[in-house]
Task: structure prediction
Amino acid sequence: LYITMKEHVKIFKALADKNRLRILKLLEHKDYCVCELSFIIGIKQSSISRHLNKLKGAGLITRYQESFWTNYRLNKTGGNAVRILLGNISAWMNEDKTVLADIAKAQRADRSKICCN
Result:
């Protein structure tokens, strides 16, 4: 599958943000909804939604509905470039203090308590 220069630029722009990288690192472990990601990362849900839209537009994540929640996951069936990049990101930043703190905080992200239905 051929990916245009424009599509490559969209992917790299989506990766050029600390919070979007944090989201991708979290999604390596499980699927999350907006309110869970907002709780973990500590920014407003509207900001999380904008980040998720950029990641989705670049083909890096997908979303699906589960009851009241829209969950987000890594797009492991995306094109070759997406699969390669997600594989590389999976190998990177695993010892980063922010990433480790996010993963630890994720253990306390109980959607039944933090999400509005």
